[in-house]
Structure to design on (124 residues):
């Protein structure tokens, strides 16, 4: 699986600006300026390292042709044997199903099509 890794370092705490302490008045908006340990970095002045890993799923769109006796769900969606549709691999299945995006009532939704109901025509 492809992934992109990004590491961000924040060396100096933005709250205390690297002092390790903050004026209490800044925290409580009082006129009392005693210094207290910075609550954000706990006085260590270094707050965090953020590591972001983005996983990218590669999906291959394809054109399929519907074959065989279609299940009711597909017929109700207005699909017919012989229709050619743009499809993509369905998630969470190792069975080779694909999903097709359809429109209904101005919203899109997906239907799953099982291997017995389609032939791949080509991969886009
Ligand atoms: Zn701090």
């Amino acid at each position: 699986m492809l992934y992109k890794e990004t590491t961000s370092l924040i060396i100096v705490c933005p709250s205390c600006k690297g002092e390790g302490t903050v004026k209490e008045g800044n925290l409580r908006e009082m006129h009392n300026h005693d210094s207290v340990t910075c609550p954000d970095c706990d006085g260590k002045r270094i707050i965090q390292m953020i590591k972001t890993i983005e996983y990218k799923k590669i999906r291959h769109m394809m054109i399929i042709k519907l074959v065989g006796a279609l299940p009711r769900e597909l017929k109700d969606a207005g699909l017919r044997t012989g229709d050619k549709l743009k499809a993509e691999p369905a998630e969470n299945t190792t069975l080779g199903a694909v999903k097709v995006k359809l429109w209904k009532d101005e919203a899109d939704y997906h239907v799953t099509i099982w291997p017995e109901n389609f032939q791949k025509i080509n991969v886009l």
User: Anything to note?
Assistant: The CA atoms of residues 5 and 35 lie 38 Å apart. The first strand starts at residue 2 and ends at 10. Helices lie at 24-28, 72-76.
